Amino acid sequence: MAINILMLTFFSMIAAYRAKGDLWVITFVVSVYTMLVLLFWCLNASKMVPEDSKAKKTYRVRIWSLGALLNIMFSYKVFTILPLAMAFIIWVAMASLAILTTFYAFFVCKDDNKDNESFCEEFNECC
Residue 116: what pLDDT? Predict the structure, then answer.
């Protein structure tokens, strides 16, 4: 985990340096960096909490909110460099689809099948 944060910090510093004083780009880099650090922290903290606790649900909301906000921000960056019609599709349709899909997976879908856990364990062992 520490190496991830170090690499994120390093590359964020490089991006902010390459912005050459452009306040909007520096603000974007700093805000994305902050949200990613918070997202990593929430992901790690949520692993320590029992599955059926209220805190776990709170962490799910935080994780989903940070992910949705990051998705919107990155989609907006793509929006600024594409033609208007394509940018609209990217920013609205694709970002909305990703946000709604993760909302469904986090809060609506109640998967009682434990095969997913065994698949994840097998995947983690081999990769």
Answer: 55
* Residue 59, amino acid: Y
Contact 32, 56 (CB under 8 A): no
**Residue 3 vs residue 89, higher pLDDT:** 3
Contact 78, 90 (CB under 8 A): yes
Return the percentage of the chain with pLDDT > 70, whole number: 85
Alpha helices in the chain (DSSP H): 2-18, 23-47, 54-79, 84-88, 95-103, 115-126
Q: Convert 86-105 to b/e letters by CB count within 10 Å (16 or more is b).
A: ebeebbeeebeeebeeeeee
Q: Where are the domains of the chain?
A: 2-126
Q: Report if pTM > 0.90.
A: no
Q: How many CB atoms lie within 10 A of CB 42?
A: 20
